[in-house]
């Protein structure tokens, strides 16, 4: 693929991401979120366009791209909501879980193998139960929405490899503590902190220590 063609493809994907980001903003608006909705558009657009060079370089298998596309959309929309109103709507957290599992099933069908689905299920259980336990022990540490979003995030990350799940959870906790220290606030949105390591895991699976994907 020539450089010109690569740029053209990236621009097309950027525009598609912008449009889907607008859909995400509309979903949040229907859920009562009224602030910073426009962030969804450039957020999804940039996240999606960043996948093009990764595919070109061979760091991201083409059959896997549905997972980071869907996961990226979910993470951006939830992060915008969490930053804006400190709330993670059920329609995105729970609905996002269905979208992610669907993307994993598609990736499995296209060439990833059906082991991806078992990895996704295990990841969703591990992260969901882990966050639920933290919520029970320390209710002020995580909100109910954080526990719900752990399901789609765990599914996406678990499809990469169940061993990646503890890394994502630990990194998210570290990022939250860092944000709290930098802002000198005891309450910071955890969604964006979880989104960062989750996105790195699904967009660059070859960098993980698990061998890249569930087997």
TrEMBL record:
Highest taxon, organism lineage: Bacteria
Q: Any idea which UniProt keywords this protein has?
A: Membrane, Transmembrane, Transmembrane helix
Which InterPro entries has this protein been placed in? Prepilin_IV_endopep_pep
MF term (GO), any: aspartic-type endopeptidase activity
> What is one cellular component GO term in this UniProt entry?
membrane
Describe the location of the Prepilin type IV endopeptidase peptidase domain by residue ranges. 70-175
Coiled coil (UniProt feature) = none
- Pfam family for this entry, one: Peptidase_A24
> What protein name is recorded for this chain?
Prepilin peptidase
Species per Swiss-Prot/TrEMBL record: Actinopolyspora mortivallis
């Amino acid at each position: 693929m020539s450089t010109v063609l690569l740029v053209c493809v990236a621009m097309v994907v950027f525009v598609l991401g912008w449009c889907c980001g607008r859909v995400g903003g509309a979903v949040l608006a229907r859920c009562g979120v009224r602030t910073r909705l426009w962030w969804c558009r450039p957020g999804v657009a940039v996240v999606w366009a960043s996948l093009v060079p990764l595919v070109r370089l061979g760091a991201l298998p083409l059959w896997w791209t549905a997972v980071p596309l869907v996961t990226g959309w979910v993470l951006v929309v939830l992060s915008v909501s969490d930053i804006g109103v400190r709330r993670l709507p059920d329609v995105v957290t729970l609905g996002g879980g269905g979208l992610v599992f669907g993307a994993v099933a598609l990736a499995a069908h296209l060439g990833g193998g059906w082991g991806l689905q078992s990895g996704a299920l295990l990841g969703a259980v591990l992260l969901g139960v882990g966050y639920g336990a933290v919520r029970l022990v320390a209710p002020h540490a995580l909100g109910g929405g954080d526990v719900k979003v752990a399901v789609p995030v765990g599914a996406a990350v678990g499809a990469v490899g169940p061993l990646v799940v503890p890394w994502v959870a630990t990194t998210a906790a570290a990022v939250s503590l860092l944000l709290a220290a930098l802002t000198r606030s005891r309450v910071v949105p955890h969604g964006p902190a979880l989104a960062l390591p989750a996105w790195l895991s699904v967009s660059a699976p070859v960098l993980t220590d698990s061998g890249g994907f569930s087997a």
